[in-house]
Amino acid sequence: MTARARAGALALLTLCCGNNPQRQAGGPRAQVRALAEAGRLADAERLARGDPALAVPLGEVLLLRGRLAPAESAFAAAVRSNLPDRRTAEAALAELAARQGDRATAQRRALALTAAYERDGVRWSVDDKTAAGRAYAVLGDRDAEAVKEALRTFDAAVAADSAALEPRLRTGDLFLDKYNAPDARASYEEVLRLARENPRALLGLARVLEFEGNAAALAAARRSLAANPVLVPAEVLLGGLYLDAEEYDSAARAAARALATDSSDVTAWALLGATRWLAGDSAGFAGARAAAGRVHPRPAEFFAAAAEAAARHRHYAEAVRFGREGIVLDSSASHALGVLGINELRIGAMDSGRAHLERAFARDPFHIWYKNTLDLLDELRGFRTVSTRRFQIVAPAPESELLALYLGPLLEEAYDSLVARYEYRPPTPVRIELFKRPADFSVRTAGLTGLGALGVSFGTVLAMDAPSAREIGSFNWGSTAWHELTHTFTLGLSEFRVPRWFSEGLSVLEERRARPGWGAGPSLLFLAALKADKLLAVSKLNEGFVRPSHPLELQFSYYQASLVCEMIERQFGRAALVGMLRAYRDGLATPAVFQRVLGLDEAAMVTRFSAWIRERFAAPLRVLAPWDGKGPARGELVSALREAKALLDAGRADEARAAFERAGAMFPEYTGADAPPLALARLARERGDKRAEAAALGRYTVLDESAWDANGAEAAVKEELGDWRGAAAALERMLWISPYDPGLHYRLAGLAERLQELPRAVRERRGALAAGPTDALEARYQLARTLSLAGDSATARREILRVLESAPGFEKAQELLLALSGRRP
After folding, report:
1. What residues are paired with 395 via a beta bridge?
2. How many CB atoms lie within 10 A of CB 459?
3. Which helix (H) or strand (E) holds 369?
4. Which of 198, 433, 541, 806 could pair covalently with 463 via S-S, beta carbons 3.0-4.6 A apart?
5. Model confidence over 771-808: pLDDT tens digits?
6. How confident is the prediction for the chain on average, in pLDDT?
7. For the domain with range 1-212+219-228, which CATH number is right: 1.10.10.10, 1.10.3720.10, 1.25.40.10, 1.20.1250.20?
C-alpha cells in the first residue's frame, strides 16, 4: 500500500533520540537536533563537527543529507568510544545496514542490542529503550513477534518519561507501517500535544490521511514541509499525491527536491522513476532505477513502488511486470510479492496471484490487505462461474444462475454496442465478479472494507456489488455493469493511459445511452454549485476524483465529466471521443489531446464547456440560488417545491397539483424524493385518474434508474389500464434494480405471453425458478408450459419429466407430457 511503501524511509530519516525538550534545553546535542528538525542541515552539521561527543547527532544529520558512509563512520566511532548514546548509534547502524541491503549485518546488530536489553533493559535510559525498540523493529522485517516487542519497548520508554517524543513518533510510524491508522493517529496527536509543530508528527498525520484516502493529506504534507522544508519523506509523500492526480511535473519536482537533500533515498528514486515511466520517459526511468541500485544492491522496493504507481494509474499488467522484477531481485521482499499478487488477481491470474499473496502474508502477517484478500479468495472458491460467448460471470453459487440469466445478454449487447462506438475489440473472455457483501467487493478493489463505489474495472477483469449487496432502490446493477465494461474499452483503446476523468465521464455517458434513465443526472446541488462557480474547471477535473475538496465533489465530478464527453460528442462527433483515446494512447497529455483532436487549447476548452453547460441548464439555473458550499440548495425552485408540499399536506389538492406542475416545469429532470411527478401521481391516484397517474409515473421512471416503488406503481396501474406493454417495460426496469422476487418474474412472464413475446416469457419462467419460488414444482411446470408455447418441445419435455420425477401425481404435468407426446388423456 502507498503508506507502507513510504514508511521505511521515515523510520531511518529521523532524529533519533534525546528529544525531551525539557532535558535538552541548552546543550550542543539539543542545538544540533533543533537545527536539523528545522531543516537547517548544513548548520547542524557544522555545529556537530569537531566534538567527538556529538558523533551520534552528527551521524543523524549526515543520514538526513544522504551521506551514508560518513554517517556509518560517525555511528561506529560513537560505539568504539563507548559514548553515553552508543546504543542509539548501534540501532542506527542496524537500520543503516538494512537500508543498504545488508540484511545479515542488520540482523546481527539488532539481535545484539535486543539481547542486551532483555538482560538488563529495566535500568536503561529513555533513549536506550528507544534504541532497543528500533532494533526490534529491524528484526520485525523477519519476525512478527519482534514488531510486538518493538511496540512494548517504545511504550516502556514513554512510561519512563511521559514527555519523550521519539518513542511516540516511532510508535506511530510502526503502527502505520502495520496498517493501524487509528493508533498511529493517536501517537502523532500526542506528540503534537507536547510539541505543536513537530514536523515528523505533522508528516505522520499526513500519511494517516493518505492511508485513509482523505484529500486533506495534501495540505497536511505541505504543513509538515513548512515546519521542515527539507523533510525528505514529506516530499516523497507530496510527490506521490501529485502523481495520483496525474500531475507529473509537480511529482517530478517533489522527487527532485527530495533527492537534492538525500540522493540515497530509494523511495525518492522510486517516485522519480514512476513519474518518468508514466510520462513515457523510459530513459529517465532507467536512470532512476540505476541510481537506486547504487544505494541498494537489490532494490526490490524500487520496483514495488513503481508497481504501486502503475496500478494506481490502472496499468495493471505493467504493475505485474514491475512486481516480478522486484522479486527477481529479492524473492523474499514482502512488498514486491504483495503488489505482484494483488495485481495478478486484477488481471485474472488467480492461481499465481494467490500463491504470491500467500508468500507475502507469511512474511508480513500484519498486512491487512493481504489477509483480507486471501480470506476473500477462500470465499471465491464457493462461487460459480457461468460462461457466455465473451464473458465469465463469477457470482455466489445460489445467485449465479439468476444473475447470469440477465447479465450475460446485457454484457453481450454492451460489448457489441461499444465495439461499434469505439472501433476497438477488447480481448475475451472478460471476467466479471459479483459480490453479495459490499465489504467483499471493497476488499477485492482496495484490500480494505468501506469503499463507497459500486464497481471497478481492471481492464478485462471487472468486479461489482451484486444486487443483493445493497438495499433495494439504492443502485441499478445493469447500468453499473455497463459502466464498468465501458472502462474495459476506454482503458484498452488508450493502452491504459486515459486519465480518470475522461474514462469515468465516458462510462457515465454510455450508461445514459444504454437505457432511458440509466446513469447520473443533474441534482439541485450540482446546478446550484454550477451557478456559484464551485464546479472544477475541465482542466482540474481529475482532482475531483483523486482529492475531492468536499464530500459532494466526487459525485459532482462524475456527472460533470460525463457532460464534458457529451459536449464533445455533440459538437465534434463520436469520432472525436475515439480520437482523444488514441491521442492518450500515443502519450499525449490532456492539453495536447485537446489541441490535436479538438483544435482547442486548454483555456478555450474551459471557456467552451462553461458556456455549453450553462446553456444546457439555463432554465433551472434561473430558478436556483448559488450554493454556499454547506447547506441545501435554495432559490425559487426550492421555494416552489416547499409551497407545493405544504399545500399537499394541508389537503388542498387542486392548489397542490397546480403548484407541483409549476415546479415541474421549472426543472423537468429533477428526481429527488419530492419530485413533482411523484406527487402528481399520488394526487391522480387519490382522485381515481389512473391515466394521469400512469403518465406522471412514466415521466419519473425514465429519469431515475433506481425507482423501485415508482416502477412498481406504474406497472400496476398500466396493467389495470390494459397497457400490457407499458406494464412490462416497468417490470423490466425493476429487474435491473433487484431480480430476486419470483412474483416479479411471474408477472412479467404473464405479460410477455399476452404480448406474444415468447422468448422473454421463457426467460422470465427461468428467472422465477432461479429466484427460489415457494413452489418450485409449479415454477418448473410453468417453464415447461411456456417452452411448449414457444415451440421448444424437447426442452419442455425434459423440464416436465423433472417435475414428474419429484411429483409423479402432478396432474397438470401429466397432461402437458401427454400433449407433448402427441397424445391426449
Report:
1. 384
2. 21
3. helix 368-380
4. 433
5. 999 999 999 999 999 999 999 999 999 999 999 999 99
6. 92
7. 1.25.40.10
